[in-house]
Structures are given as C-alpha cells and as structure tokens.
Design a protein that fits this description.
This protein has 451 residues and is α+β, with helices and mostly antiparallel strands. It has helices at residues 5-16, 62-76, 89-92, 110-115, 120-137, 157-163, 169-180, 221-228, 247-256, 264-290, 297-302, 306-316, 344-362, 365-401, 407-415, 424-441; strands at residues 19-25, 32-41, 44-53, 83-87, 98-102, 189-191, 200-203, 206-210, 217-219. It has a five-stranded antiparallel beta sheet with strand order 1-2-3-5-4, with helices on both faces. Strands 6-9 form a two-stranded antiparallel sheet.
Length: 451
C-alpha cells in the first residue's frame, strides 16, 4: 500500500528537491492511485500529478516502460504530459513504484465531457483529434521501447478466468465468436491499450493530452480503435466513438494522418474483443479485492460490472433475450423472521441513506468518489434482495433447458465446440441472464424498453 499523505509528501519533496503542497488524491484509477500536488521551490509553484501503483511492491519495470513511452510519444507529436521524475517506491520511501508528470488543465470525467455545454465545441472535434493522435502513437516502433509487452489478443481471457475460478458462459461464447471470425492481422505497432474517454484530457478546444499508458503493448493498430469504440467507453453518449463521435470521422482522420485504412468490419471484431477483454479485467480487479491483495470498495464493485460487458457482447452480436424480466420474489407472509425489524433490507436502506445523505455531502475529491461507489454498492444489494431469488431460479431453469446441470457444464461445452448448429438458442438464453444481472447491478445501463 502507498504510505500516508504525510509520508508520501515528505519522501516526494526530498526526491524532487522542494516542498510538496496540497497533495490530494483524485478520483478513479483502478490499477493506480493518482494524486495532484504543487511542488514549491524558491517561492514558485509547479502543478504536478503523482501516480503510484496499487498494492505492495508494484509491477517491476512497468513505470520505467511508461516513461519511455511518454518520451517517445512526445517526440512523435502525441499530446502527452512531460515526465518530471519516476522511481522505485520501496527504495525512496513511497512504498510502491511511482511517476510524476506535469499537470495539464483539462477534464477527464466522461459524464461532464459528454453532456456539459462547456465541452460542446470539444465534442465536435474529438473524433478527428483522436484519430490523428492515434496515428501518431502508432508510428512509435514497439522494438524501440525496452520491456514493452507483445500480446496475442486471444491468449489471455480464458486462462485468466480459469486461474481465478470464474465461470462465465457468456464470455466463453464471446471467445468462440472471436476465434471463428478473426480478421487478418495488421502490422505490429505500439498500442496504447486503454485509449478511451477517461484517459483523454479534454479542454474546451478538444484533446490536450493522452494519459495512462500502463497497458501499452505491441499489437494491431485496430485494437486501439476498437477499444475507443467499445460500448463500455461510450458512457451513455450517442456516438459510437467514445460516446462523442462517428466512426467514419475517426477512420478518415486516422488514415489522413498516416494511419492504415481500417474497414468497419475489422473495427467490429475489435469492439467484440474489447468487450470480452474489459469483462476479464473486471474479474481480475475484483479478485484483487477478494484475495486481500488490495482491499477497495471500488475494486469490489467492479466485479459486478462483468454483466455490463456481457450485455454489450450480445448487443454487438445481434442476440436478444428470449425471456421477459423476472418479477420480484414475494416472501411468504406466514413466515415470521426471528430477527424482527429492521429487516436486512431496511438495515441496508438505512446505511445507504446515511452514505448518500451524510458521507457524500461531507466528502470531497477521492473520498466523495468512493462514497458514491459505496452508495451504488448498497443499491445493488437492495435490488438483489428484491430480485435475486427470481433471477437465480430463472437462470437455473434456462441452463437446464439447454441440457446442462450448471454454468460450469455449459461453459465447458462452449469451450469445446458444442452447439455446431449455431449459438442462437444458447446466446438468447445467456442474453436473458445478462439482462437480469443488470437489473440488479446497474439497471440504468439497459434501454428503457427492456427494463
């Protein structure tokens, strides 16, 4: 874990040769802790950003690779913040590996960028700007970045699920589809790996910086485009590109800036891949909390977002549910609980109201962000208390009608090539289950007509 604010400020100030002022943790960041601060030297202040690895020990070499990437990106003409310093956290009293860059003014919160009038001009330019920036990123020779990983896109999802003992038939179906429809590989370039709204710093005039390079690797240039266009990163916005733009505009700007000509059907394959990959990342991040490696309410709740990606998968593949949403289970009125009142539901409601009405109002910055997540988690519990029994029963019935005893048997059949006549029946059943999970986890993610 990172040290206390006082410990971090003292160690950082000593390393940077100044006094750290106003160190404040920012919201977001599932793999890293991000903070802002000012470095005071001889009466002058420099606004900076600190990023520290979550957990203990960090991932050796990852920050070093990111420094090389940022320097190469700057030389290629990509808008990025300037690297100020980086180091080994254990050796320098910061507990985990760290990176300091210049703080550039702008916004990263997607819901503001996609909805507020302040960013209306930026939204009209972003698709083109993102295309040009991606073309510049893809000019970076991956062989010039020491330690940059090289990824086969279909290498990871299923082994990761197996290692974490996570059984997800919908993701098995997604990987089967990807294997059956894989397009020819593009040229190998440096891929940002997490190019999306949230990691793009936006000003009133548009794109100001590309942030968070920790997932960069060598790969196909269409991967970054598919990731930016994945449903998960539209945040409710209408545009296929990050919620703000049109795919044709992005592809034209990308090709016009020297990037490859990429066909829309290739982008779709990478959108499906991005959806399966993000679901797997959600499982991994939740496991960090569940294993005790990094206890975090944010990481815990991310585990319940897997069903969002499963729903997105079926939408992308044109598969619709084959059953109506279940009705809430009604407890028998003749059963008297020995616990009396307040009931479990009433206790959860009371805690949620306290978090919503007191903790959130009295918090700011990262604390307010985490309080909002805690409120959302309690809302999920409330919905599961009401809908959970009916949803579990309906899902079990669907699996039995498909001819399997449980999810494990269904997942095994999908992995080993069953359903030779197509995936329509199993897909529709799993789409129904994904929708039902969303009714608990995040009903606002579903179209109004379905809820």
């Amino acid at each position: 874990m990172a040290g206390t604010s006082e410990q971090v400020a003292a160690a950082l100030g000593q390393r940077l040769g100044g006094t750290v002022r106003d160190l404040r943790r920012l919201s977001g960041g599932a793999s890293r802790v991000t903070s802002s601060f000012d470095l005071e030297t001889e009466g002058a202040r420099r606004p900076l950003i600190l990023q520290q690895e979550r957990g203990s020990g960090g991932q050796t070499g990852r920050v070093h690779v990111e420094v090389l990437l940022l320097e190469a990106a700057q030389q290629a003409g990509v808008p990025v913040p300037e690297v100020v310093a980086s180091g080994d956290g254990e050796a320098e009293g910061l507990k985990t590996d760290w990176l300091v860059v210049d703080r550039i003014e702008g916004e990263t919160i997607p819901r503001k960028i996609l909805r507020d009038d302040e960013w209306s001009v930026a939204r009209s330019e972003l698709a083109s700007q993102c295309g040009r920036a991606l073309a510049a990123i893809h000019t970076i020779d991956p062989d010039d970045i020491s330690g940059l990983p090289r990824r086969d896109p279909l290498r990871d999802p299923l082994p990761i699920l197996d290692a974490l003992s996570e059984i997800r038939p919908a993701l098995e179906l997604g990987v089967r589809w990807l294997e059956a429809h894989r397009p020819p590989a593009g040229r190998r370039v440096t891929v940002h790996g997490d190019y999306r709204c949230g990691n793009l710093l936006i000003g009133s005039d548009g794109l100001r910086a590309v942030l968070d390079w920790e997932l960069a690797h060598g790969g196909d240039p269409a991967e970054d485009i598919g990731w930016l266009c994945a449903p998960a990163w539209r945040f409710g916005g209408p545009g296929e590109v990050g919620g703000f733009g049109q795919l044709t505009v992005l592809l034209e700007a990308y090709a016009g800036a020297g990037g490859d000509v990429i066909a829309p059907d290739v982008v779709k394959w990478w959108q499906v891949y991005a959806t399966v990959k993000w679901a797997t990342i959600c499982v991994m991040q939740a496991s960090a909390h569940l294993s005790g490696m990094t206890r975090s309410v944010e990481l815990a709740t991310i585990g319940r977002r897997v069903c969002e990606s499963e729903w997105d998968l079926f939408v992308l593949l044109g598969i619709v549910p084959d059953a109506p949403p279940p009705e809430p289970a009604v407890p028998p009125s003749t059963v008297t609980s020995p616990f009396g009142r307040p009931t479990v539901a009433e206790l959860v409601e009371a805690v949620r109201e306290y978090v919503e009405g007191t903790v959130m109002e009295q918090s700011q910055g990262g604390a307010r962000f985490e309080a909002r997540i805690a409120r959302n988690a309690l809302q999920t519990v409330e919905r599961q208390l009401a809908l959970g029994p009916a949803i579990a029963s309906a899902h079990a019935d669907r699996v039995r009608r498909l001819g399997f005893a449980d999810d494990a048997a269904l997942a095994e059949a999908l992995r080993h090539g069953d359903f030779h006549d197509g995936w329509g029946t199993v897909g529709a059943a799993l789409a129904s289950s994904a929708r039902d999970q969303l009714l608990v986890a995040n009903p606002s993610y579903l179209p109004a007509a379905i809820t």
